[in-house]
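Please decode residue identities from the backbone states below.
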């Protein structure tokens, strides 16, 4: 028994030392993350600039149905926060939360209703129809969009549902906000290009844009096996192809008008474009790797306007096939 007790007291200092070393190691890693241990470029990219996602599709739909682009944007903001894959418990889908049956009635297959171009067109047609039915009365049109024309007719105005009453108020507020973003009656598209960019790799989003681990993640991570092709999201010119801290090898493409896209974590041996080279939308530029500060094979992809980061998911088509 005494030997066991003596051995315990001999072992205790060792355990304490191991514990202290482990805690110090964790602290070093944690501080490294807080101080910028994630992806970083040394080219002065920083900050965040909001835009109007899907501006090109919104403008076209608004012109087609003779309504304000600001109204469509306001509805999308309230319905889905510009998430094309939004899906409600009632079954409504897409940017403007259209029911599959409604989509079919308009002429779009239910399984393609989520696509931004189809969903925005369907939603634009619906709200334009309500505005016509209610002779331009925005409150009634929004109430009908949310609760259905039958309920507006039943209650002789905005239905007494808390959700619908709040919806009418909130969308009206958003409408005023988006009116201020109009230039000549429409939204400006990013860099003069359609704001829907091609998905740059066939994979799944493994880390979104936004704050993580105490710092800003200024792009999205697309996980896929090593060797998966990476393509240019739009036409442009390669303005950087080289090593960058945290990125391994990075490619930056200038699309004009201040719009650039950034691709990271490739191996140099897989890069098939050079600095100064013109590239086309969908053209292969490299392959997915696991280079730089990376915990697994993936593409780190960024969208920047005048050096300011944008959420790529607001500008990308939602999958590889629809690029």
């Amino acid at each position: 028994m005494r030997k066991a007790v003596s051995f315990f007291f001999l072992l205790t200092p060792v355990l304490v030392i191991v514990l202290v070393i482990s805690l110090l190691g964790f602290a070093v890693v944690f501080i490294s993350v807080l101080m910028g241990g994630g992806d970083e470029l040394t080219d002065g990219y920083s900050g965040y600039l909001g835009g109007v996602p899907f501006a090109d599709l919104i403008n076209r739909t608004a012109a087609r149905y003779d309504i304000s682009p600001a109204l469509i944007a306001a509805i999308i903001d309230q319905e889905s926060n510009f998430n094309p894959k939004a899906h409600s418990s009632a079954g409504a889908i897409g940017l403007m939360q259209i029911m599959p049956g409604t989509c079919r009635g308009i002429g779009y297959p239910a399984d393609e209703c989520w696509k931004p171009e189809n969903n925005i067109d369907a939603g634009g047609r619906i709200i334009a129809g309500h505005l016509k039915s209610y002779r331009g009365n925005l409150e009634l049109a929004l109430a009908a969009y949310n609760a259905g024309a039958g309920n507006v007719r039943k209650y002789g105005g905005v239905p007494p549902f808390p959700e619908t009453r709040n919806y009418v108020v909130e969308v009206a507020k958003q409408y005023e906000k988006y009116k201020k973003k109009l230039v000549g009656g429409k939204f400006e598209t990013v860099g003069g290009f359609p704001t829907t960019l091609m998905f740059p790799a066939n994979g799944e989003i493994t880390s979104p844009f936004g704050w993580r681990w105490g710092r800003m993640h200024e792009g999205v991570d697309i996980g896929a096996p090593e060797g998966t092709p990476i393509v240019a999201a739009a036409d442009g010119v390669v303005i950087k192809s080289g090593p960058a801290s945290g990125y391994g090898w990075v490619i930056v493409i200038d699309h004009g008008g201040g719009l650039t896209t950034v691709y990271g974590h490739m191996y140099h041996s897989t890069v098939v474009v050079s600095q100064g080279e013109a590239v086309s939308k969908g053209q292969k530029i490299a392959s997915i790797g696991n280079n730089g500060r990376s915990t697994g094979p993936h593409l780190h992809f960024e969208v920047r306007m005048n050096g300011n980061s944008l959420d790529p998911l607001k500008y990308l088509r939602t999958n590889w096939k629809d690029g």
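Observation: The radius of gyration is 25 Å.
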